[in-house]
Amino acid sequence: MAQVPRPAGQTVNAPLPGAGDLVLVTRAASVQFVTPIMFRVIRVLDWVTFDGWVWLDGYQLDKKGDAVARRSIFVQPAGLRMQLSRSARPRTASTATAR
Asked: In this structure, are residues 29 and 36 in contact, taking their beta carbons and an 8 Å threshold?
């Protein structure tokens, strides 16, 4: 769980997504998302915001999971729906090819 520094002791109480996390962004996260979007997080920006809000940098995904736009979005982490965490994602074993 990441913690973004805030002025005057403000903190975000909800868990923050991290790089690689896939989240569903709905109206619960911000009123601008009347139509929900899937969002792959690149990073949580350390910009100064209102208490309980954060800026996320990442990619909006289409229904196939392909990136269609890079965006910075202003959301309440408590309203994000975690779809796939970077720690829950299965890892593939790398194989070396002998010559």
From this structure: no
